[in-house]
Amino acid sequence: MSPSKRADEAQGFYTGNQRIAGAFLAAALTVSLLSGCKFFKSGPETFSARLEISPVVGDQPFQLDDGSGAVSYRTASGDQFSATRLRYYLSNFRLRRADGSFYQAPLDAKSSEGYFLVDVAVPASQTFKFIDAPAGDYSGVEFLVGVDDARNSAGVQTGALDPARGMFWTWRTGYIFLSLEGQSPQSSAPQHALTFHVGGGGKDSLARQVYLPVGETPLHVRANIEPLIHLHMDVAALFHAAHDIRLAETNTVMDSAQGAVIADNAASMFRIDHIHNEPRKASHAP
Amino acid sequence: MNAVRKAVAKGWLKLPGKLKSKLWWLALPLSLFVISESGAYLRLQTFIRLHQTPQLNVPNGWPAPHYDFADNRVTPAGFELGRRLFYDPILSRDNTMACGSCHQQFAAFAHLDHRISHGIGGVNGKRNAPGLFNLAWQPNFMWDGAVHNLELQPIAPIENPIEMDEKIVHVIEKLNTDRRYPAQFRAAFGSNGIDTQRVFRALTQFMGTMVSSDSRYDQYLAGNQSFSAAEKHGLQVFREHCASCHQEPLFTDYSFRNNGLDRSPPDRGRADVTHAAADEGTFRVPSLRNIELTAPYMHDGRYATLEQVLDHYINGVQPSATLDPLLAKGIQLDAAERSDLLQFLKTLTDETFVNDPRFAETDE
To answer: What pTM value is reported for the model?
Structure first.
């Protein structure tokens, strides 16, 4: 078969298929337009809530270093460290209702909505709409630091979970849940490098669940209120929260045994600094 | 013809009287033509079959496949795109190395004569490139099973510094600036755009439909071909001594085992993934289909011939903490058993598969 003929066939297949796809699209569009009206919606109407994350070390703001070591911090044990890169996944957000039950937005296996890749170098990635929930008062927020097992072992994903984002192991299947790269004078690795790549699924998954109560005033999710949770992520907690880490011994972490130690610490990095129950901006109104 | 006659009889089809009588005259030459041209008809059928896009058909008696094409339906455009990608060195950093460089069709997609595959700049890896076929049935990939989804397998060679040493992001940039790829991706996936998911799914449509199930052994089981006495005896020997690990019909049970290559295995194998002491030096039981073509053998390609492999099982099994109990005493075979087993192993070669033009190298 000649190349051009084969190309023609492929083209023919495509146009035929496209016509069908077009019909489907039109149908889908109609349905989604209709379902946009409250009347056709099956579940209760939902409204967004936002999250803003500020990286800190103790009570000072945390900044990435440019590789020169100019911006450095100390761990609780006195080791010095600087980080040129700090990225992590947050997912599976749930809100706690007054009665103790949780609301979790449904996940769609075909999209990576609900999975967030936070990159300390990219301010926009540190503030996002983390959930759409029914109107109500919520007393706490729960989430995973990492990616749940189902998605961690599924086929190739898009968006925040696109393996091209550089948070996917290349020699085995699965995501790197948290990655910190930098330097420490105490590190015995070449160039005093600090490399924490934490991730791994299966029965000993390194994804860690975090629950944070919002305090006295609950989160008001309303048609006219868009609540904002302001989180602090304490980078120093990575080295001593659950397990004390000395950078002379622990400086290159790739496997799941050492990774578990860092993952436990990572779960303790987050705390709620404050919340706002702000009037929803006009553009968000339904 | 009958339908026309019926239609006429029932008065649905009104033919002028003259034509009605002529119609019968037409029937004779027409049927003569069909009979004389049935050879051409068969050739046409073969032609269509060969150029049809492969689909994942489950051969008789095989278990259900592991990979589900429901979310990645095989289409002619998608398959052909995957095929072009597989043979295109654009996936490597310096555009010198394609998947097909290390996975050659005549070697059932193993790397002929390469003990361990070397990648870009001739840098050596540490493991032998396995043949690629029946991948849709495989629950995990690589000798140590580190990869457990066929769609995500290509990231390993593409980003491995000693294989293709490239970054996915850069591959996608290169594909986007190519003259033909953007249109091919549109044809395959119905809309504009090239992303990791589309690249990997296209590759999966190609690799995942490479089914090898037409060896002489398969023909023998189906009753279409006969085995010599030696081959029949070889099959018996195989079932007695080898099939507990190299289980029919895929000729592997996909478990990880230590078949006694080393007293203290230099490559941790499965333990690289699980960090479990019990997995030290265990590797996935490889399929033995097309085994005659996929030399050299074992995860590090240490044996050049099947003779050497049999020598290993008969005389060379090394004791170690993780040696599989089935091999504790090696495998005792007399000379006749040994030579008949060897003959049987050669019936697992699938000429149809390694000559299937649909999987052949292309730059289209």
So the answer is: 0.84
Token reading at B1: 């013809």
Any domain includes B38: yes
Residues of chain B in contact with residue A2, where contact means CB-CB under 8 angstroms, are none
- pLDDT tens-digit readout, A93-123: 999 999 999 999 998 888 999 999 999 999 9
Report residue A234: phi and psi, to 5°: -90, 105
A204 vs B51: CA distance, rounded Å: 47
CB contact under 8 A, B364 and A173: no
Enter the DSSP assignment of B15. -
Domain that holds residue B30: 2-52
Both B207 and B95 in one domain: the answer is yes
Lowest mean pLDDT among A29-38, A217-226, B107-116, B129-138: A29-38
Which chain A residues are Cβ-neighbours of B80 within 8 angstroms?
A: 6, 10
Residue B233 and residue B189 share a domain:
no
User: Are B148 and A153 inside 8 Å of each other by CB?
Assistant: yes
B364 → closest Cβ in A6, A158, A164:
A6
Residue pair B50/B357 in contact by the 8 Å Cβ criterion: yes
Window 91-150 of A: residues touching B by CB (8 A cutoff) are 110
Answer for the pair B182, B176: CB distance below 8 angstroms, yes or no: yes
Strands (E) in A98-207, as ranges, are 102-104, 115-119, 127-134, 136-145, 178-183, 193-198
Of B91, B84, B117, give the one whose Cα is nearest residue B102: B117
* B62 confidence band (pLDDT: 50, 70, 90): very high
pLDDT in tens, A32-90: 444 444 444 467 899 999 999 999 998 899 999 998 889 999 999 999 999 999 999 99
Report yes or no on B39 lying in a domain.
yes
Tell whether A255 and A115 lie within a shared domain.
yes
Q: Calculate Rg over the CA atoms of chain B.
A: 26
Task: Write out the residue range of the structural domain in which residue A161 sits.
Answer: 44-279
Both A174 and A218 in a single domain? yes
A25 with A159, same domain? no
**How many domains, in total, are found in chain A?**
2
Which residues, in sequence order, are bridge partners of residue A158? none
Note which residues in 21-40 of chain A have CB less than 8 A from chain B. Answer: 21
Cβ-based contacts of B169 with chain A (< 8 Å): 164, 166
Shared domain for A106 and A240, answered yes or no, is: yes
- Kindly state the tokens that stand for B44: 């046409």
Q: Is residue A284 part of a domain?
A: no
What is the tally of structural domains in chain B?
A: 3
Radius of gyration of chain A measured on its C-alpha atoms = 23
A123 and A229: one domain? yes
Alpha carbon of A188 to those of A77, A197, B120: distances in Å?
A: 17, 17, 31
How far is the CA of A38 from the CAs of A41, A130, A284, in angstroms?
5, 22, 16
- Say if residue B244 is in the same domain as residue B338: yes
Q: Clarify whether residues B75 and B202 are in a common domain.
A: yes
**Long-range Cβ contacts of A36-44 (<8 Å, 24+ apart):** A38/A286, A43/A134, A44/A134, A44/A135
CB contact under 8 A, B168 and A164: yes
Structure tokens, B176: 């986007």
On whether the CB atoms of residues B135 and B210 are closer than 8 A, the answer is yes
